[in-house]
Write a sequence for this structure.
């Protein structure tokens, strides 16, 4: 999917995001996973997904996002468990 500054204007993107987008992609850009990852700290991709995707694509995004959050929660819980085990072994 290609996004242009006009798309962002029509969707009501904030001024700072439009300005940064225009600076980086004056001719627009084809959105790819690599692009989203590279600019994850620059653009609000959640906002873009909600405001620029079709309803069916937004629904699919929601499913993928839910699965990713579930995996994140599992990994985070394992990390907390490992830290508590480490703390217990240090305190003896």
């Amino acid at each position: 999917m290609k996004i242009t500054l006009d798309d962002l204007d029509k969707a009501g993107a904030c001024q700072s995001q439009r300005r940064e987008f225009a600076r980086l992609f004056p001719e627009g850009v084809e959105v790819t996973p690599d692009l989203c990852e590279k600019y994850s700290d620059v653009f609000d991709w959640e906002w873009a997904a909600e405001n620029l995707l079709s309803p069916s694509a937004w629904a699919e995004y929601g499913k993928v996002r839910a699965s990713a959050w579930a995996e994140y929660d599992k990994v985070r819980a394992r990390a907390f468990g490992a830290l508590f085990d480490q703390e217990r072994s240090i305190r003896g």
